[in-house]
Amino acid sequence: MSIEANLTHITQNLRGAKPKIVAVTKNHGIAAMRTAIDWGICAIGENRVQEAITKYADLNRQVEWHLIGHLQTNKVRNAVRIFDLIQSVDSERLALEIDRVAGKLGKRQDILIQVNIAGESQKYGIPPRDTMTLARVVSDLPNLQLCGLMAIAPLYDDPEQARPLFREMKRLFQELAAARLANTNIQWLSMGMTNDYCVAVEEGANLIRVGTGIFGQREY
Ligand SMILES: *Cc1c(COP(=O)(O)O)cnc(C)c1O
Questions:
Q1: 138-171: per-residue pLDDT in tens?
Q2: Is 174 touching ligand 1 by the criterion CB < 6 Å?
Q3: How many whole angstroms separate alpha carbon 175 and alpha carbon 204?
Q4: Tens digits of per-residue pLDDT, 29-40?
Q5: From the alpha carbon of 193, which atom of ligand 1 is closest?
Q6: pLDDT (tens digit, 9 = 90+) per residue, 12-22?
């Protein structure tokens, strides 16, 4: 199917729900990205800073740029320059470095905290029980604005298996919002990918990150 047909298919699957769709364009080229943007996509997600910079030179500010992959501290400067939302903040050390760089660049950087919801050792993210502690640290940093949480569920054969994890994320998200921390604007619960976005949205995701379902298989 074409990119346009895939996007239409996704909106139909969502049956009236209207999460923000972040089109994940890692390993896909500018032409595919333009097609998605022309269709109406307003946010794209990249997981590597260097790849995003190259594409940014072509597409610039036509869309929001979201960083969804792990960020090393030595790449923070370039990340802060181009990304509207860094979804993958998962340590105090990284938060402090983003705050420092954003201050130098005169930017207030929007971020999400990435939670390792299933406790998978091979995945990044902060353990659920440490999320509020990190949120309080971030809330004290003047050049960061915490906007919510992000999580990646394990790839199950049946996405129903991810439902309890998404539910737990929603609970954490509500706890975070209820804490009313200074300096925050808690609005995004980013969860759901090609395999499980329907379940994620049913459980409260309002931002989904879809790559394969829009652009087809990635070639590495
Ligand atoms: C690659 C990626 C996605 C998109 O995955 P698909 O299965 O292709 O939809 C979403 N979120 C993150 C963090 C990713 O790295």
A1: 999 999 999 999 999 999 999 999 999 999 999 9
A2: no
A3: 14
A4: 999 999 999 999
A5: 9
A6: 999 999 999 99
pLDDT in tens, 101-152: 999 999 999 999 999 999 998 889 999 999 999 999 999 999 999 999 999 9
Name the 3-class secondary structure at 65: strand
For the Cβ of 22 lying below 6 angstroms from any atom of ligand 1, the answer is: no
What is the number of the ligand 1 atom nearest to the C-alpha of 212? Answer: 8
Residue pointed to by tokens 């050792």: 121
Spell out where the chain has E strands.
20-24, 43-46, 64-67, 85-89, 109-115, 144-151, 184-190, 207-210
Out of 44, 113, 197, 209, give the residue to mutate to test ligand 1, the one with the largest number of ligand atoms within 8 Å of its CB.
209
CA of 193 to the centre of ligand 1 (A): 6
Which residue, among 52, 54, 94, 47, has the nearest Cα to 74 in the 3D structure?
A: 94
